[in-house]
Amino acid sequence: MENPLLLFPQLNISASKDKPYYKVMKSAIKEEPHKASKPGAKQKRNRLSLLLQKPEFHERDQLGKPGNLTKAASVSPEEAVKWGESFDKLLSEKAGLDAFTKFLKTEFSEENIEFWIACEDYKKSKSTHELLPKAKTIFETFIQKDAPKEVNLDFHTKEVTSQNIGQPLPTTFDAAQNTVYRLMEQDSYPRFLRSDPYLNLVKGRNPARPTLRRRSRSFTVNDFQGVRPDFTVW
C-alpha cells in the first residue's frame, strides 16, 4: 500500500505519525476496501433495475403480445396474398391483424382497430356482470367526447350507443363497430394493400420499416358512401 501522505500531497508533510489526524487517515484507508465489498440496498436495487431492462428478461412475455406476432412466426408470401382476398380475411389472421395494426400506427389511426378489437372482446363476455364495466371502459376510451382514443362516428350512431351504456347488451356496440369496420375497409385497407411492407411480404422480402404519415383530415362514414375499395394492385 502506498504511503497515505503521498496520496494527499496537499496535506502538511511535516505532520508526525503520532498525531491523531494521521491515525484517522490510516484507519479510513484500511476500511475503504471493506465497505466496497458489501453492496448496499441501493446497489442491489440498481442491479435489479438493470436486469429488468434486459430484452431477454421479457422475451417470453413479448412473444405473446399482438405487436410481436410476426416475430414469433414468419409470414409466407402465400399467407400474405390471402390477406388481399378480403378485409375480413386479413383480420381473421393473427399475423394479418398485427401487420394491419402496425400500418395504422404509421397513419396515426390505430384507435380504429383497437376499438374494433375491444368490441370483439366485449361480445365474448360470459355474463351480464362483465358487460357493464367493459362497456363503460370502451365508451370512456373510444366514444365519449374528447375520449383519449376517440373514433370518428356519425352523430346518430354515437347518440344511440351513448343511450345504451346504462344497461349494456352484447349488441350495444354493434352499430359503432360496424361503422368503424367500414371506414377501415374502404379507406385504410386499400392503402395497406398498396403499402411497401405488405408488397414486400407478398414478394417474400423482409418488410421495410414503414414511413410515418400524418392524416390530412379525419374521415366519416359519409365520405365513403357508394365508394368501392381500389384493388388495382392485383
From TrEMBL:
The UniProt keywords, alphabetically, are: Signal transduction inhibitor
| Record Gene3D superfamilies | 1.10.196.10, Regulator of G-protein Signalling 4, domain 2
Alphabetically, which GO biological process terms does the record hold? negative regulation of signal transduction
Mind telling me which SUPFAM superfamilies this protein's record contains? Regulator of G-protein signaling, RGS (SSF48097)
Q: What InterPro entries has UniProt attached to this entry?
A: RGS (IPR016137), RGS_sf (IPR036305), RGS_subdom1/3 (IPR024066), RGS_subdomain_2 (IPR044926)
- Provide the RGS domain boundaries: 86-202
- What protein name does the entry list? RGS18 protein
